[in-house]
Design brief:
Layout: E1 4-6, H1 8-16, H2 23-29, H3 36-44, E2 49-52, E3 57-59, H4 60-76, E4 84-89, H5 93-104, E5 108-113, H6 118-128, E6 132-135, H7 141-149, E7 154-155, E8 165-167, E9 187-193, E10 201-206, H8 207-220, E11 228-231, H9 238-250, E12 254-257, H10 263-272, E13 277-280, H11 282-292, E14 305-308, H12 315-325, E15 329-334, E16 341-344, E17 364-369, E18 382-387, E19 394-395, H13 399-405, E20 412-421, E21 424-430, E22 435-437, E23 440-442, H14 444-452, E24 457-467, E25 470-479, H15 487-495, E26 506-510, H16 526-530
Parallel strand pairs: 2-12, 4-5, 4-6, 5-9, 11-12, 11-13, 13-14, 14-15, 25-26
Antiparallel strand pairs: 1-17, 2-3, 6-8, 7-8, 9-10, 10-19, 15-16, 17-18, 18-20, 20-21, 22-23, 24-25
Helix pairs in contact: 3-4, 4-5, 8-9, 10-11, 11-12
Length: 531
Amino acid sequence: MTHGRYHSDEAERMVNAHMNIDTHALIASLPDRIDAIVTRGAKEHPAHIALREDARALTYGQLERAVDALAVRLASAGVRAGDRVMLIGENSVAFVAALFAASRLDAWALVANARLSATELEALRAHAKPRIALYTVEASDDAALHATRENAVSETLDAIPIGAFALGNVDPHSVQETHGLPSDRQCAALIYTTGTTGAPKGVMLSHRNLLFVAAVSSTLRRVSAHDRVYAVLPISHVFGLASVCLGSLYAGATLRLAPRFDAARAGKVLRDEGMTIFQGVPAMHAKLIDHFTPRGGLDAPTLRFVYCGGSPLDMSLKAAAEAFYGVPLHNGFGMTESSPTVSNTLLDAPARDSSVGPLIPGVEARIVPLAQQAGDTVDDTGELWVRGPNVMLGYYRDPVQTAATVTPDGWLRTGDLARFQNGNLYIVGRCKELIIRSGFNVYPAEVEQAFNSHPAVLHSAVIGRSVEGNEEVLAFVELRPGSAVGERELADWVSERLAPYKRPSVIHILDALPVSASGKILKHRLGMLAG
């Protein structure tokens, strides 16, 4: 079996046409731990604002002192190098400071969104066995409720006001993991992901994993201290953590933190506070467009870079967003296990189609043909494998799943169906989501694109369901607020745009599609809704 293979030097030739990045020199220049980003910022521009939220702003110098003070507090509570510190909260100064404080102690930050239920949090706690939990009680009502359940008492730092937080009880049975390792082997963050199965897995990301992505992504976007970055993507999610939070601070920019997305509030911040960079999932862009278009549009002339990731981007939203923002809507691909970035569209050469751009420098990929090709159809689509400094250390306490996902020579089996064209990567769907209908391959993303092109559709999700001797296509649709359209009209709409074997057997119109805290549609829940 032959594998289509795309080496990092090929990707670098494309990128270097627009920006010269010496990958080897960049990796050699990375610090040992993620908290060194703050230390460097405090030395180079101590008075520059690093973090801003509704309640407060901290300069890089103040953030450095806050990280030191919070690390001392965690150590006094019993946190040791190699411990897991569970951070339960939403985007806030306290959450970011706690992330770096854990790093300063050579502990692992187990980042968890406070919007998870108590049951979900307890499942993560039972698996990871953190030494202690920190709750950002001032910035998140949900975090405060979780803290109350643990009888955690609110407190503040005397040295620097980061907002109230609470520390839970120390687990005396928590295992101290290996620590003091080189940056490419020492875990910095533990992020639990459900993927498509619903079973959470703890992804171990090293300091070098995160710093590499932070450095490359900020360099490709030309982020500088002059930038003001709207950070509404959850920092408990890898996209918000590595690309938005660490990438922005690595470049010395100001991070404008928002705990949750609200279209009216987001538009006001983008406009009135002069944001220059906004990264979001497709649903965020769609809701901003829906909210502001009837009100005369969004006047945010300082925006220079707008990005969409986390879920597939359909062309109708891309076109609408570019008209709305007045700048290109950039796109990319990544996953938690790759820290997350694998590819990005280029700043000076935005894609005109659904491409997620070339591979980022330092990363190589191959397309592995599917073991089963349906019918007589032949295409160049296969499973995407990637390798590079962004590939995770593995799944925590799960060597079997780690071995099934990362090969001995470092290739990460992404589970995504993809193809390359003219050096650009195109994501077709998930291997497990591939639907084989009447002997033909049906890629859910194609069907979703057809639905999403309807003016009344906010977003959609397509899954397969086994029937006797075949599979059928099921579609789930969420309409735009105030829109009224029936299943029959939607069926007619997509029938004009899809081959007969791709057309859904059933269309469900839902009040809202189930999504994670980061805005990703949870397809594993849709099968239960279908019955």
